[in-house]
């Protein structure tokens, strides 16, 4: 089942179900794309037809925002839970069952993250030559490629090279590699439970305030663009 937010479809899955899907994708062996639409991406995709198409056509679309859960309840199509990219990444790599490749962040950051997760390969996210990076990834032949190049850009990069990379699962993880490496702290669980992780990020990274305007815009679009879109 999917839930629609201003024209972006999100799969109504739990973390456990998403991990099951991951298993199926890896077993199938053909390339799959996993995306994590959050309010910022949903707002960004309103004026970005390419991003919208990529998000809607991905093989799995995880609801990465507690505000999405709240809005879905108000709109009468409740999401089961928030499944964030970082929670999915940590769960998928927990028992080191899969061969993974990390792409993104600064060299020392991704190196640290790769050590922590036992990755088979890694590359920083400030490259100019796509092809050189692609051949490095292909050499490793990972089961999963986690790309943290920034929301929107990483999805476009992965979608563009999905077939060429031929990795069973490609997924955009935003700033997760910074958190895994330990250079950035995630909000404590009690703050996450109070639904105020956005406030924590605003205090810790005040320069992000402009990006956080996405939240009220997301609420506005979700309510005003809901009915019209769901009739299509
Ligand atoms: N990043 C990168 N290459 C770039 C720009 C950004 O690897 O050219 C990385 C950056 O180091 C950070 C990540 O992209 O780790 C995600 O940034 P963002 O703040 O967009 O995270 P999100 O809000 O999407 O979680």
TrEMBL record:
Please give one Gene Ontology molecular function term for this protein: hexosyltransferase activity
What keywords would UniProt list here?
A: Glycosyltransferase, Transferase
Q: Which domain of life is it from?
A: Bacteria
Q: Which Pfam families match?
A: Glyco_tran_WecG
Record-given protein name: Uncharacterized protein
Q: Which organism is it from?
A: candidate division WOR-1 bacterium RIFOXYC2_FULL_46_14
Query: Lineage of the native species?
Result: Bacteria, Bacillati, Saganbacteria
